[in-house]
Amino acid sequence: MSTQLPNCIPGSPWLQLRHWIADPIQFQEKYSQLYGDIFTMQLAGLGFCVVIGNPQVIQEIFNRDSKQFDVGRANALAEPLVGRNSLMLLDGDRHRRERKLLMPPFHGERLHTYAQQICLIADQVASEWQVGQTFVARTAMQKVSLEVILQIVFGLSDGERYQQLKPLLTAWLDMTDSPLRSSILFLQFLQRDWGAWTPWGQMKRRQRQVHDLLQAEIEERRQTGHQGRTDVLSLMMAARDEAGQAMTDEELRDELLSILFAGHETTATTLAWALYQIHRLPDVRKNLVQELDSLGEHSAPMKIAQLPYLTAVCQETLRMYPVLPVLFPRITKSAMTIAGYQFDAETTLMPSIYMVHMREDLYPEAHHFKPERFLERQYSPSEYFPFGGGSRRCLGYAIAQLEMKLVLATVLSKYDLALVEDQPVQLRRRGFTLAPAGGVQMKMTGKRSTPIYSTSI
Known about the structure:
There is one protein chain. By secondary structure, this protein is α+β, with helices and mostly antiparallel strands. It is 49% helix and 11% strand. The protein has one domain: CATH 1.10.630.10. The protein has a five-stranded mixed beta sheet with strand order 1-2-8-5-3. It has a three-stranded antiparallel beta sheet with strand order 4-12-9. Strands 6-7 form a two-stranded antiparallel ribbon. Strand 10 and strand 11 form a beta hairpin. Helix 8 packs antiparallel against helix 10 and helix 12 packs across helix 15.
């Protein structure tokens, strides 16, 4: 390397990788205290990665022409799960084509169509709770988010295929539910199929079963038609690019799995964190419930989603508990200078959501949950970016935010909940993401009133 990488962490790449897998938050806290808001780690098998917690540097990266970076190649770790046709693994013209085809189902009027469904799903899951019964918040929210994926994205709400996919997807995702089990995603020598009894063998078999079920659904839709349907899969199948070409079956399958991984685990985790903080801090719960009650009964879901304090609670949850410790890496395709730093070609840049979101100069008392900060100030796209930024901003950010708001509103307007233990909950790695250790134990203490959402939009 002709240019010295900034603040290289000394020591074994294997030990750094071990620390990164076990606790990426503590890793970043340790080295940001030593080196400031930009440093370079060396991870065994992955090479040098420049971790950036400086908003000015990140803003310049976001503003650069996307052609100057390889992002798909930098995300190769995810290919065994989502497939080579996933939007997150594409660059250039192919990325632009797929993104354009996938955009319509996740924005605009489509959100009105999905809002009612989200409320009904949340109500259905929560109705299973009993007064005095203990439940795990993340598990409950995982049920909600999985139903949202199955019904709104896959277009399945009943039938044999739905019944097969539901437990299969849960079992598949739970295979990386701890730092140790997540190691399989980072260590290629563990990615060997030595039979059904090995972790990778189990993962690949479940993946093939999911592929087969999704392929069968796609083929059935092609035969019976998908006109008039509003689920994301049907809209994806109907989409055409500028040359009049539709997405292939393999592209459809890989994008469905990408949405599953990007939208199911992440939303469930964020909702669990939100419930934790809302019920840990009496004033937050009081303010939120008062705002919900002020709407009266039978409000339209989209009106609920516009409530300012509810929005601020969701924003603060996403700030304090980024589901991903860093953004997807970007590899420089040529030598470049960014905000005064010189980087050679083939340098991996990794903007850190966590480091920026915990900056005291942006977020005073950053380790305290304070939704009010989002009512008092607007943050720039390089100061607050839970869904990424630039040309790689998460495609489903609007529906993810809508789901968070409507699920919280549905649950809190009907049920009184409480934390089982008044103990701090720690972050723990779960695959590529971070989740609350133990999932947040809660119990229902009573029922409130009728739903605040309307039965018609």
